[in-house]
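User: Show me a protein chain along with its predicted structure.
Assistant: Here is one chain, sequence first, then structure tokens.
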Amino acid sequence: MDATQTNGEVAVGTIPGESQPNKTRVTTPYLTKYERARVLGTRALQISMNAPVLVQLDGESDPLQIALKELSQGKIPLIIRRYLPDGSFEDWSVSELISE
């Protein structure tokens, strides 16, 4: 696996493919239940391993509850990569996606 670094962010094990420009996105702007589960689990794990919390805490100590609060406020710093059938992909920031 190779690691590339851009603007302080590290992408590990990237798969070659074509990125879709943000204007020509074809996938839905809604966060799917599978993406939601993956994002919450990943962020809760990060919080449990002492990652900085990006929201004001009101007595919450459970990492999953903190991750839910971050998701509802749109402050989760993750990017979702959606692969398309032609081998290209779209990158969506979690804050760009509509979650209900």
